[in-house]
Design a protein that fits this description.
The chain is an alpha+beta fold. The chain contains seven helices and eight strands; from the N terminus they run ααββββαββββαααα.
């Protein structure tokens, strides 16, 4: 996960007269009747093409949570960060959900199937568990759960949001095995938000770990090339051909860190120290 600026809302969600604005007013009126709490509401504004297109552009066709590219292989899941219809607590579904956020820009994120949908996953260590976000939205104190518009600002949420958090302060990667863990401070204190996000978003599922590991192999190879060129230049002095090769190698490393690159968060943790080492 990397930090992403969402920018302005797409037309279908912008303002009270938009499709999303009108749906919001209808949903608030509907759920004002306590008898409607367990009922379903026909949310649809979040499915608008303008919403999908904007999310695809903002996130470069990558899952907001795991950073896998989905554009080549699967349709976009428009994921509700705070679930619209209901939320799970200790395995039980409670209704209504965050209905007032169903068409609010900032609560909608692009997700791959594995991060978004709750299903059985095989983890990298061989265990099989049911994971995936679905209707999960854990908070630190259930007594502070938002049940009305605006109350969500007071919730002690435990999930990372790519536009509200700096994921690099909560997630850490090893350099070789594709594994992810909660970031630990100098005192050893681990990020709780990082730990919960890893579990809920299924960021240790086997296929994902394998994909990150394969990416790491390519990055390590390019790091070795760059370091080798830099060392040779230190030994022999100026050489136009080798200097150009080093420039190209460093450029390739920067490409791995680009916003539109898969697993850019992991790549940045690997590459930034090397760039500082080689470029000062």
């Amino acid at each position: 996960m990397i930090r992403v600026s969402l920018g302005p809302a797409p037309a279908d969600l912008a303002g009270p007269d938009s499709k999303g604005g009108k749906e919001l007013a209808e949903a608030i009126a509907f759920f004002a009747d306590p008898a409607h709490a367990p009922a379903s509401f026909p949310f649809s504004a979040y499915k608008a093409d303008s919403v999908k297109d904007t999310l695809n552009r903002r996130f470069s066709f990558k899952c907001a949570y795991c950073e896998s590219s989905y554009g080549e292989t699967q349709p976009l899941d428009v994921e509700h960060f705070r679930p619209k219809s209901g939320f799970k607590v200790d395995g039980s579904l409670h209704k209504p959900g965050y209905y007032w956020l169903a068409a609010v820009w900032g609560n909608l994120l692009p997700s791959c199937t594995d991060c978004n949908r709750e299903r059985e996953q095989q983890l990298a260590d061989g265990r099989r568990i049911v994971s995936g976000k679905a209707n999960q939205f854990p908070i630190a104190n259930e007594a502070k759960r938002a049940r009305a518009p605006g109350d969500e600002r007071k919730e002690p949420r435990l999930l990372l949001h790519p536009a509200l958090d700096d994921p690099a302060r909560h997630l850490a990667f090893d350099a070789e095995e594709g594994m992810i863990r909660p970031f630990a401070s100098a005192s050893g204190r681990k990020s709780r938000r990082g730990a919960v996000s890893i579990d809920v978003y299924a960021l240790l599922r086997d296929g994902l770990v394998r994909a990150r590991k394969a990416r790491q192999k390519l990055i390590r190879k390019e790091i070795a090339v760059a370091r080798g060129l830099a060392q040779t230049l230190d030994e022999i002095g100026p050489n136009a051909r080798l200097e150009q090769m080093l420039v190209e190698s460093l450029s390739m490393l920067r490409d791995y860190m680009a916003d539109d690159a898969p697993y850019a968060g992991m790549a940045r943790q690997m590459i930034r120290p090397v760039l500082e080492e080689l470029t000062g």
